[in-house]
């Protein structure tokens, strides 16, 4: 069996050229990254200027407090993420290593080909047994592949197996681990059989292939068994999700109500007051002084409070009402195993029970700087990376002390303008609407 049947010189050089283009592309991408970042900043600045000129519904003089984009540590983290020079160097290194390996294999192939030709010239019948070589390569690939699987679980497994900070998250983690265990066992068995058979039954002069095209029993087994396993997993997941997203009425009534409204590119947080009920909202009431369109004629809105961060009491049900002011966002709390879309014009809900305070999680992760973070899981524009919001889980006492210090939505300035709009007959129509006139 000739080596040129396996490696064509033209194909090899085409592959090398394509790889060189890939290396050049990565270098160009690194340079373009800085230009893209600058362009994104210009776009953001332009959008902010337009909003200030036309009176964006998202601009409000009410102080909401620091968000992720105002946090210096977050800005430093973003800056660090943008510096991808080391990553590109690493990618280039491995690509060059791959090229050298290809060249090495090509040289070995040519040497073996010369050896075959020399043997033929001298009348020797001994040739390179490519079937045996490929069988050994299959065995080596099996060992390296299984070790790579073990290594990935050992090194990166903690990213998927970090402890959940919510009660329902423990159930989801259990489902995840069950699925991983089943698929890993099946993967290991099938790969050992696949590569093991290729090694054990490699072609020889004494062995001929046995063609076995069909077996009803085997087909039934590999159809019915996976179908049963998948059915169990799917039904388990369905009923678990129903339990998480459809809590009992009693649990809903005693849950703490928090409203999260997404917009480009930040989150707005509203806490229900002492009555634990939100005042009504209407998008027609949105204005620079009433960013969320709250109906201040509704007495329930008078004690609604702003949240500069999301603070949750531990071991108490929390019900989030998720909204969007502009486009589709996604409310995502990875540490709590919670994610649901924020849809314009349609409120969505998610209820959970935090089980670990921020301090407790810092101890478990051995990271004194750890913070829970609310993220947006939809790519919502140039400032998508800014859709971060600090989440703290504290004791009930700390939560009550923190909430008492938070400002009301219905501030003195809003009250003053509201009264002026009610008493003024010359007030602009849009201002009367915004102030519930």
Keywords:
alpha+beta; disordered N terminus; 2 domains; five-stranded mixed β-sheet
Structure description:
With 437 residues, the protein is of the alpha+beta class. It has 11 helices and 10 strands. The protein has a 5-stranded mixed sheet. The protein is elongated. The model is unreliable at 1-7, 31-40, 49-70 and 72-82 (pLDDT under 50).
Mean pLDDT across the residues is: 77
- Biggest pleated sheet: 5 strands, mixed
CATH topology of the largest domain: Immunoglobulin-like
Task: Count every helix, treating DSSP H or I runs of 4 or more residues as helices.
Answer: 11
Supply Rg. 31 Å
Q: What's the shape?
A: elongated
CATH class of the largest domain reads Mainly Beta
Strand order of the largest sheet: 3-2-1-5-8
Unreliable stretches (pLDDT < 50, length at least 5) are: 1-7, 31-40, 49-70, 72-82
CATH architecture of the largest domain: Sandwich
Helix and strand composition category: alpha+beta
Cα separation of the termini: 90 Å
**How many beta-strand runs?**
10
Total domain modules: 2
Helix content: 40-55%
Beta content: 5-15%
Secondary structure blueprint with pairings:
Blueprint: H1 9-54, H2 72-82, H3 85-121, H4 130-161, H5 167-200, H6 216-245, H7 249-254, E1 256-263, E2 266-271, E3 305-306, E4 310-313, E5 318-324, E6 329-333, E7 338-342, E8 348-352, H8 358-365, E9 372-376, E10 389-394, H9 396-404, H10 412-423, H11 429-434
Parallel strand pairs: 1-5, 4-10
Antiparallel strand pairs: 1-2, 2-3, 5-8, 6-7, 6-9, 9-10
């Amino acid at each position: 069996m000739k080596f040129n049947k396996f490696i064509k010189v033209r194909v090899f050089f085409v592959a090398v050229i394509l790889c060189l283009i890939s290396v050049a592309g990565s270098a160009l991408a690194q340079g373009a990254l800085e230009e893209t970042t600058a362009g994104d900043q210009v776009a953001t600045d332009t959008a902010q200027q337009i909003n200030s000129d036309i009176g964006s519904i998202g601009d409000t003089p009410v102080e909401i407090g620091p968000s992720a984009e105002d946090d210096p540590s977050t800005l430093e983290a973003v800056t660090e993420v943008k510096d991808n020079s080391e990553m590109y160097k690493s990618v280039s290194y491995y690509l060059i290593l791959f090229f050298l390996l290809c060249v090495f294999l090509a040289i070995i192939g040519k040497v073996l080909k010369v050896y075959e030709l020399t043997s033929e010239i001298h009348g020797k019948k001994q040739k390179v047994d490519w079937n045996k070589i490929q069988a050994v390569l299959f065995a080596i690939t099996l060992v390296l592949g299984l070790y790579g699987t073990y290594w990935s679980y050992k090194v990166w497994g903690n990213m998927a197996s970090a402890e959940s900070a919510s009660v329902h998250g423990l159930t989801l983690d259990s489902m995840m681990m069950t699925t991983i265990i089943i698929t890993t066992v099946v993967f290991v068995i099938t790969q050992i059989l696949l590569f093991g058979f290729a090694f054990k039954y490699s072609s020889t002069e004494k062995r001929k292939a046995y063609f076995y095209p069909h077996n009803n029993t085997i087909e039934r087994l590999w159809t019915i068994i996976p179908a049963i396993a998948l059915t169990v997993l799917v039904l388990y997941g369905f009923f678990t999700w129903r339990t998480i997203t459809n809590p009992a009425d009693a649990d809903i009534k005693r849950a703490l109500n928090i409203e999260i409204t997404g917009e480009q590119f930040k989150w707005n947080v509203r806490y229900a007051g002492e009555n634990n009920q939100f005042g009504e909202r209407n998008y027609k009431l949105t204005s620079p002084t009433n960013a969320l369109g709250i109906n201040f004629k509704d007495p329930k809105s008078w004690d609604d409070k702003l949240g500069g961060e999301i603070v949750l009491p531990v071991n108490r049900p929390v019900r989030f009402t998720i909204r969007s002011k502009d486009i589709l966002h996604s409310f995502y709390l990875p540490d709590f195993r919670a994610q649901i879309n924020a849809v314009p014009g349609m409120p969505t809900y998610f209820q959970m029970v935090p089980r670990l305070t921020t301090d407790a999680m810092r101890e478990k992760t051995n990271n004194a700087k750890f913070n829970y973070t609310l993220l947006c899981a939809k790519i919502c524009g140039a400032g998508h990376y800014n859709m971060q919001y600090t989440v703290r889980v504290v004791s009930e006492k700390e939560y009550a002390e923190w909430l008492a210090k938070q400002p009301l939505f219905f501030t003195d300035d809003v009250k003053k303008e509201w009264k002026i709009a009610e008493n003024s007959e010359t007030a602009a129509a849009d201002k009367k609407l915004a102030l519930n006139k």
